[in-house]
Design brief:
Layout (H helix, E strand, L loop, with lengths): L4 H21 L15 E7 L1 H4 L17 H8 L4 E5 L7 H7 L7 E7 L2 H4 L1 H9 L4 H33 L4 E5 L18 H24 L3 E3 L2 H4 L27 H13 L8
Parallel strand pairs: 1-2, 1-3, 3-4, 4-5
Helix pairs in contact: 3-10, 4-7, 6-7, 7-8
Length: about 280
């Protein structure tokens, strides 16, 4: 179904309420059907390059925002029932999302967030680990990532979500995870990364997603798990939905392609119960 079911139910409910109220005001003999379109639900997307859509298609936007990003697709599929603003920006950390939350108001009805990966600086660690001359930097970077996930990230995620729910107290807040970057294969001719490093990358993303899910649960907002939708479509698979080594030239590697946004992120975000609170 292209039209998000939860939004459709919300629109139908509002229309029915308006029609019943209008009929009650009129005299029974002269009742006239009244149809008043509800105001669009105010939707703000927050987060990093995954929420911006960086890597999915060419863009000149300073933050890498594209029309192929899952928030833009969600707004388009709502057929005018969402008033959409994408405040996400490539490179954003949880602290940056708190600053993005100035785009929210008490009238905001829906917020989606994809953030947390940049807090770890794991892409920089991967780059160090790919360089055989940077073994010390690789080892220290991995230790720092593990410490960050265990000791710092839970607090930072909580602070981010709390800032969002405070700025938009009546909004439906949906927080997403990240897809695992590599398929579980012995060999991967298309990506020059060792099996050991591919396993490590997947482990970090799995732990990152667990931290995001736990923070969402603590603050009673909805967490959306992306893993299942991307199953069979990570790098090293026959039909990946992530940008591969070609993205090393423009730093888009590991980001979702347009298909990744449309067939990976969009279905689970749209089906996450957008019209009701967690």
């Amino acid at each position: 179904m292209s039209y998000p079911a939860a939004i459709f139910r919300r629109v139908v409910a509002v229309c029915a309420t308006v029609a019943m109220t209008a009929t009650g005001w009129a005299a029974p003999a002269t009742a006239v059907a009244v149809s008043i379109a509800p105001a669009p639900l105010q939707y703000v997307a927050l987060g990093d390059s995954y929420a911006a859509g960086f890597g999915s298609t060419a863009t000149r936007d300073d933050c890498g925002r594209t029309a192929a990003a899952y928030p833009a697709l969600l707004a388009r599929e709502a057929h005018g029932t969402l008033a959409f603003r994408n405040a996400a920006c490539t490179g954003a950390t949880t602290a940056d999302v708190i600053r993005q939350a100035t785009a929210l108001t008490a009238k905001t009805g829906l917020v989606t967030i994809t953030a947390g990966a940049n807090d770890l600086r794991f892409r920089q660690v991967l780059a160090a680990c790919l360089d055989t001359a940077a073994a010390v930097a690789c080892r220290r970077g991995n230790v720092a990532v593990d410490r960050k996930i265990a000791k710092v990230l839970p607090h930072d995620l909580s602070r981010m979500i709390r800032a969002v729910t405070t700025a938009a107290p009546d909004a439906r807040v949906v927080v997403t995870g990240y897809p695992l970057p590599f398929a579980k294969t012995r060999t991967c001719p298309s990506v020059p990364v060792s099996a050991r490093l591919r396993i490590r990358a997947n482990q970090v993303v799995t732990r990152l997603n667990s931290a995001i899910a736990a923070a969402a649960a603590r603050h009673r907002v909805r967490f959306v798990d992306i893993d299942q939708e991307f199953a069979g479509h990570a790098l090293c698979s026959p039909r990946p939905w992530l940008v591969g080594i070609a993205g090393l030239r423009d730093n888009t590697a590991l980001h979702p392609t347009a298909t990744g946004h449309a067939r990976g992120y969009l279905p689970v975000v749209a089906g996450s119960g957008l019209a009701d609170r967690a």
